[in-house]
Amino acid sequence: MHSIVALVTGIALATLPALAFAQGQPPPAPTETTATAIPGVIAGGVKVEVIKSGFTGTEGPLGLPDGHLIFTETQANRITRIDKDTNQTSTFLENTNGSNGLGFDAKGRLISVQTTPGATKIGVISPAGSAATITDNFDGKPYGRPNDLVVAKNGGVYFTDPGPNATPGQPAVAPPLPAAVYYVPSGGKPTQIATGIARPNGIMLSPDEKTLYVNDTNGEFIIAFDVAANGAVSNRRNFAKYATVTKTATGVTSGADGLAVDTEGRVYCAAIGGVQVFSTKGEHLGTIPVSLQPQNIAFAGAGKRTLYIVGRGAAFKVRLDAAGYGGRAK
Question: What's the average model confidence in pLDDT over 32-38?
Answer without folding.
Answer: 98
